[in-house]
Amino acid sequence: MHKTAKYLYIIGGCALAAEREPIRQIERIHVEKAGDSVNVISENCGQLTIARRSPACFLAGNQRILVAGGCSAPNEHTDSMEMLEISEIGEIRSIFLDEKLEIGASCSGFDWDTHSAGTVSLLILAK
Questions:
Q1: Is 45:27 a contact under the CB 8 Å cutoff?
Q2: Is residue 114 part of a domain?
Q3: For the chain, how many structural domains are there in total?
Q4: Predicted pLDDT at 109
């Protein structure tokens, strides 16, 4: 990993429209310049403790990301939280937290068109 690189983290999401089949995967995307073109590097770098569609994500400092809420199934919102810790080699470890959201009644985003693909939470982390 390059110290000056920026990474895009795709955290959770759903495989189908209307909040169906939430996923646990965390994907990291990096773009490198290669002469006159670019190389896009995508890798699965970890998993959430529970499958979540569109959780809220916050940079918590020291290579940590707080993941809160989201949907665990159609119309089933979660009030749980987990902390993602990014190691020096880029691996992600999830720690499920005892704390709960006061109002676990909504996702940070939603798919208004039930005929399209679901949404994911994105987070860009400069390293």
A1: yes
A2: no
A3: 1
A4: 45
CATH code at 100?
Answer: 2.120.10.80
Residue 13: closest CA among 76, 71, 63: 71
Phi/psi of residue 31, nearest 5 degrees:
-115, 125
| Domain presence at residue 113 | no
pLDDT digits (tens, 9 = 90+) for 30-78: 888 888 998 899 999 999 999 998 888 888 888 899 999 988 888 888 8
Task: State which residues form the domain around 45.
Answer: 6-108+119-123
Domain presence at residue 93: yes
Asked if 112 contacts 18 with a C-beta cutoff of 8 angstroms, the reply is no
Structure-block tokens of residue 38: 């670019």
Check residue 92 and report its DSSP letter. Answer: E
Closest by Cα among 24, 80, 76, 86 to 56 = 80
* C-alpha–C-alpha distance, residues 41 and 85, integer Å: 21
